[in-house]
Amino acid sequence: MFFDDERSHRLRPQILTELVSQYMNDAERAQFYGLPSTCRVRERVKIISPENLKMGDHCWVGEGAALDASGGLEIGEHTSIGLNTLIFTHSSWLANMTLQNHSGSDLIERKPVKIGKGCFIGGLVVIMAGVTIGDFATVQPNSVVAKDVPPRTLVAGNPARVFQRYDEEYIQSEVDRVRAENARRRALAEERGADASGWGAPSGDFSE
After folding, report:
1. Which residue has the higher pLDDT, 108 or 201?
2. This prediction's pTM
3. 60 - beta bridge partners?
4. What is the 3-state secondary structure (H, E, C) of the chain?
5. Each residue of 43-101: pLDDT tens digit?
């Protein structure tokens, strides 16, 4: 049933690692992959060549994401990777074009991907090999990132392009807005006798 060759022996530990990790919670899974203790990795995440993945503190990886670190992958602190996002650091395109897509082909190309600190990568995003995403960048869901993304920008689309640039003053105004709204909602929840002890805003209808 199982092959007894070099490739099978090389892949088997990765397969077993992924299987065992499905029975862990998100914090346990992150530490199982050797990531910082403050990181969270959700269910069904696939990490290719985890030894080549460098991840900062307080990162979050959503369900079903596939992180290809075979060509080198660096993710800065406080960055979130959305669910079902795909990050590629290698390509077999030339091997396909020349009918040389066999195991061990010397036409596999690898280029590292670097994602900065404080980034928000939405769900269902595709990031191509060789891309650098600057600090505090936002990638909207369903985008395909084929070129570098400048710091403090919002990009979207296929191919992704810049739609907005923001500075620290804009971010601080948004922080103030959200904290004030969350405080208003918690106060209303307490008046209604609801539990407002959780993090962020309590759920429910708080329109006046």
Report:
1. 108
2. 0.89
3. 40, 80
4. CCCCCHHHHHHHHHHHHHHHHCCCCHHHHHHHCCCCCCCEECCCCEEECHHHEEECCCCEECCCCEEECCCCEEECCCCEECCCCEECCEECHHHHHCCCCCCCCCCCEECCEEECCCCEECCCCEECCCCEECCCCEECCCCEECCCECCCEEEECCCCEEEEECCHHHHHHHHHHHHHHHHHHHHHHHHCCCCCCCCCCCCCCCCC
5. 999 999 999 999 999 999 999 999 999 999 999 999 999 999 999 999 999 999 999 99
Residues 91 and 130 in one domain: yes
Cβ proximity of 137 and 152 under 8 Å: yes
Same-domain check for residues 187 and 115: no
**Section 119-126 average pLDDT:** 98
* Chain segment 56-69, per-residue pLDDT in tens: 999 999 999 999 99
CA distance 175 to 182: 11
| Same-domain pairing of 52 and 97 | yes
**Domain boundaries, position 109:** 48-166
As for how many domains the chain has, the answer is: 2
Token pair recorded at residue 133: 């995403």
Considering the domain architecture, whether residues 57 and 157 belong to the same structural domain is answered as yes
* Residue 101 and residue 71 share a domain: yes
Domain membership of residue 3 (yes or no) is: no
